[in-house]
Specification:
With 148 residues, this protein is α+β, with helices and mostly antiparallel strands. It has one domain: minor pseudopilin epsh fold (3-Layer(bab) Sandwich). Helices cover 34% and strands 26% of the residues.
Length: 148
Amino acid sequence: MRGFTLIELILILAIIGVMSLLTLPFLQSFQVSSDLATSGFNLLATLRQAQRQAQTGQDNSNWGVYFDDGNHQFILFRGDSFASREPSEDQVATYSEIFSFQPDFGDQIVFSLFNGQPSASGIVQISGPNNQVRVILIAADGQINIGN
């Protein structure tokens, strides 16, 4: 009966080490892509929640979302604007500092009471490292969708 020699064991460990090093960048890239998708879906859900709360007349008020990219967060708020909101109603969602949220319509969007129409239409571009991008589309008629 014959076992493995020390050289064979070292060779096998070296092969495993090299394979691990080669797969690490792929796994990190996959994680970033997954986190980017999650951030996009979280924003999509928050925008739809604000619209739904306005449409159902919750607290007889408009609802909106404020984008605070400097603090890596977006905030669901109640009121006609972020400045005149009711701070006790705020729902803050944070995202990783490796991402940037850039709306092309300013730093907030407000959905009108009962009809849910947005105060602006446009896109929110979510950018990550390695030129990865997710886009949230907000149409003038109130449709909110996620793009590529």
